Structures are given as C-alpha cells and as structure tokens.
Amino acid sequence: MRTASTSSTVRALMASTRSSCVRFVAVLPRQIINASLIGYDIYLYGGQVTWKNEHREELLFVSSKAIFKPPKAIRGGITICFPQFGSGALDRHGFARNRFWSIDNDPPPFPTNTTNKAFIDLILKQSEEDAKIWPHRYEFRLRITLGPGGDLMLTSRIRNTNTDGKSFTFTFAYHTHLYVTDISEVRVEGLETLDYLDNLKDRERFTEQGDAITFESEVDKIYLSTPTKIAILDHERKRTFVLRKDGLPDAVVWNPWDKKAKAMPDFGDDDYMHMLCVEAACVEKPITLKPGEEWKGRQELSVVPSSYCSGQLDPRRALSV
Ligand code: BG6
Q1: Which of 40, 43, 229, 308 is the most buried (most CB within 10 A)?
Q2: Is 281 in the pocket of ligand 1 (CB under 6 A)?
Q3: Which residues are catalytic?
Q4: Closest ligand 1 atom number to CA of residue 75
Q5: Distance CA 7, CA 26 (A)
Q6: How far is the CA of 86 from the centre of ligand 1 (A)?
Q7: 199 lines ligand 1 (CB under 6 A)
Q8: Which residues does the entry assign to the active site, renumbered to this chain (predicted)?
Q9: Which helix (DSSP H) or strand (DSSP E) does residue 130 occupy?
C-alpha cells in the first residue's frame, strides 16, 4: 500500500493466506488517519475487498458460510462483475471475480484531485483460458483507496488492448454486500420513483412506486439512470452508508430473503437479515470500447450517523452529508 504522495508512509501491508486465497491486510498510516485500525482486506482471488471501521467491525457483509477457496468468489465484501453482469453467454457475473489478480506496482498516471490517500492497485489481463470464452485483450486496473475519514473508494479502468482492431462490449457492477443490523429496519433513499428492471421477472421494466424503499421479501432489481448518490439507512444502528458513483448509471439492489438464502451453500440461513447488496453498475446500456479506448467507473462508500427526526429518518440530511 502506498500513499498518493509518498510510499515511505507505508505502515502495514501484510500478506497472509486463508486457504488458497492470498489476502492483504492494509491499514492506514497513523499520520494519515487517527484511527489506525480502519482498513480493508484485499483478496487477490477476485480482487475482492472487505472493509472495517475503527472498532475493527466489518462494514461490509461477509457470509457466515463464506468459502475462502477457489473456484467460487467469496460470498461478501465487494466482488467485481466483469465482463458480464448477471446471466448471459459467460458464467453469471463474468470471470473477473474468479481469477487471481496481481498487484500493479507501476500503474500509469492516475489523475486524482485528492492527496493523502492510501491505495493499492490491482491488475487483471486476458489469460489463455479466458481467450477461449471471451476473445479480447484488455487491461483492467482496479485502484482501492482508503480516504482520510476511512471512506472506501474503488476505481476501475478498463482498456481495450486488442491488436486485431476489434471493439468489445461489457457490462459491469461492484457487487457490494453492505452489513446491516436488521434488513426490516433498512431504508434506501435516492432510487424512489425510478424505472427498474426486475430480475425476478425476466428483467421486465417497472417504475418504483411510493416514497420509501424498504424490505420485507426477496428483491433483485436493476434501477436505471440513478443519481450519483444513494443513501442506505440502517435504522437500528442509526448509521447511514452513502454510496457515490461515477460512470455507472445503474444501481442493483439484491437480497435473496429466507428461501433462497437456505438454497445457497455459502450463505447462512439467517444471513439475509444482515445483508443488503447495493451495487453501482452499468447494465442496461453496455459499454463498448474500441482498441486503445479506456473506460472508468468509480464507487465510493462512506459511513455517517443517520439523522433522526421525530421517529422519521430524514433522507435529505442523510443525502447532503
Ligand atoms: C446480484 C444479482 O447482483 O447477485 C442476483 O442481481 C444474483 O440476480 C446475486 O442472484 C448473487 O449472484 P451470485 O452469482 O453471486 O450467487
């Protein structure tokens, strides 16, 4: 892990193994952040990330039955869905989440308007095996950044490096499993009245009704053309996740609820009560890159105390943080 200004401030980057997934534990340097325990874990298998607060509590959900062993992605944290979100010609959510990524020690310049941030760069490129199922050369650079307040930012840069002159097309999502205290006490702000594709109804298009998105049964929706800021209010804990995104017009909201939870071998029967996936995504309008072109998509997560007024959560205050 390095800071944007200098690598000499590296405080901790430890590699350990949990089964066969290499895991890096990155902790912010004390001089950059007071609570030095805020941090994230990165799994090179899938380029997957988990995220903790200053009390070492997981802010992202990790399944109680998660399997830390290939070939499947770890059920939790943030997984990368590329080059396909959902079902299609490739395995569900694409192959990037089932590949070993490398640390990129020499990334090309990365324009950023902020300093004093700790980051690590991962890279994924075409393998011989993947060329058979998706015949395109690409460079996928994933920068994982921890902001001074402990915010977690993921920036993906995907470049078409085909030498045969061919374009390629992909869909994408940051499959983000948020840890929530009690799903029945969670409310999402920023998606109400929007159109969505319902994954439970063959992606039929609907318009969200009502002024609050709450949860009392299975949900699997792709909200379209969403705002760049979405708030997820954990009423029980009086804490709000604020998700900001850029280059990713859609947002997926998923919870399998009890029956599907029981059917998933790597998901605890009651885990659905403590998880909500809200995923910055690009699904409805796939991205096409010509050779030499690059696409960028960013998701940033922060945690703030929820505003609480007369028994009602105030979405405007949560969103203005
Ligand atoms: C969500 C999708 O992103 O991921 C759901 O919207 C899917 O349709 C879920 O069921 C989990 O997918 P997987 O492949 O990780 O079990």
Answers
A1: 40
A2: no
A3: 175, 279
A4: 15
A5: 13
A6: 7
A7: yes
A8: 175, 279
A9: helix 128-133
Classify residue 244 as exposed, middle or buried by CB count within 10 Å of its CB (0-12, 13-18, 19+): middle
Q: Is 190 within the bounds of a domain? A: no
DSSP state of 318: H
Q: What is the pLDDT tens value at each position of the chain, 321 positions in all?
A: 444 333 322 333 434 434 445 555 544 333 333 333 457 788 889 999 999 887 878 899 999 999 988 899 999 999 999 999 999 999 999 999 999 999 988 888 877 655 656 788 999 999 999 999 999 999 999 999 988 788 999 999 999 999 999 999 999 999 999 999 999 999 999 999 999 999 999 999 999 997 889 999 999 999 999 999 999 999 999 999 999 999 999 999 999 999 999 999 999 999 999 999 999 999 999 999 999 999 999 999 999 998 743 334 444 444 433
Q: 317 alpha carbon to ligand 1 midpoint, in Å?
A: 31
**Best mutation site among 74, 80, 93 for ligand 1, i.e. most ligand atoms within 8 A of its Cβ?**
93
For ligand 1, is residue 201 a contact (CB within 6 Å)?
no
Pocket of ligand 1 contains residue 63 by CB under 6 Å: no
* 35: nearest Cα among 143, 147, 133: 147
Q: Is residue 1 part of a domain?
A: no
In contact, 216 and 185? CB cutoff 8 Å: no
Please tell me the pTM assigned to this model. Answer: 0.88
In this structure, is residue 232 part of a structural domain?
Answer: yes
Distance 199 CA to ligand 1 centre (A): 10
The atom number, within ligand 1, closest to the CA of 85 reads 3
Burial 162-178 (b: 16+ CB within 10 A, else e): beeeeebebbbbbbbbb
Q: Residue 30 is part of which domain span? A: 20-181+226-245+260-305
192: in domain: no
Domain count, the chain: 1
Q: Ligand 1: distance of its center to the CA of 220 in Å?
A: 8
